[in-house]
Fold:
Amino acid sequence: MVSMAQVTVLAPDSVAPADSVDASDSVGIQQAGDSLLPWNVRVCHRLEKLTADPMFETSQLGLCIYDITADSIVWQKGMRQTLRPASCEKLLTAITALQRLGGSYRFETTLYAEGEITDSVLHGNIYIRGGMDPLFGHDDMRAFASTIREAGIDSIAGEIRLDVSVKDTLTWGKGWCWDDDMTPLRALLYNGKDRFRPEFLHALSEMGIGTTGRFAVSRIEDAVNPRSLVTRYHTIDQVLMPMLKESDNTCAEALFYQLGAQDKRSYPSSSLSAAKVSAMTERYGLDPSRYSVVDGSGVSLYNYASAELLVRALLYARQRSNIYGHLYPSLPVAGEDGTLRSRMRGTGAQYNVHAKTGTVEGVITLAGYAMSPEGHELAFAIMNQGVLHARNARRFQDRVCRAITEK
Structure:
């Protein structure tokens, strides 16, 4: 009889093991005779051993491995359990945005002038229309100030009016915890922080432009014959990179709010964006009423998804080059960059696994793409919930990735 793979049992979740798996941690995945079995059989035996660990007596697991090449599920356990996705929610946000907004979408911030210029004084107001661009920074602000100077203005007699109607007035997400270290959700950001006003005044001062220092909130539609002076923008690809590679929550929420803004309503609520992400579930062939979408980043404890939902979303993206071509390059690569830079090094999963990580208290998730030793494309999702020590869950996930990528 051919001996099956023997997988090292993880420590119970009450004991935290080492942070990561390296080449010296053999995991017992490969054993004499194991490589003679078909790949899918090997994987099933490996995963059965891994998921028999005592840590699952006290925690939940949702796991799904899908063979894209063979168009079939390789292995699953609890794939329909509704669990918190943590930052894997960003996958659902990104896929929805790429489908609805397109890969050429831009986050725009526009500067306007209203009134007449006499003796270098603007007898009127400056308007700035915010597009919730999380990457608007020093060069953009300097371009705003220099454009005003080039228009022949060295003093602004009126107000600086901010059009922040691209989103609602709430600065905190529904279901966020009081101790979450989150940037307030603003329509105008500077380097992803709530510092637009002071930085704008500083940029004007550096250009020698005087102001009254008065700010007001007003829509550009209420201005009288406003003149557009300059628009600064960043592309959806530029935002997706930190959003997925580094799991930047502000970038995710900024992209999320673009969805609701497409309805052209003033001050659209986050529920409009959530409805669009939720509606995509039907395109994945699932019932949206079984899940909950609240924010775009996964910080909220009110988000609920499943391993099946995440895998279906990944499959949907893989089948559409207009989505996959933007999504795949933005995913962290195991052992190389992003939130996976220090994981799976020296294993068959290194450079192979391209996946989004997720972490909130008690929840660790991982979902993305990989390649089997036989050259089959895979989509997978691993959701661990109720874990006391995050390191245990990450170690388990790394071993799952090794199980599906090594001979």
The longest strand covers residues 106-118. The CA atoms of residues 21 and 249 lie 27 Å apart.
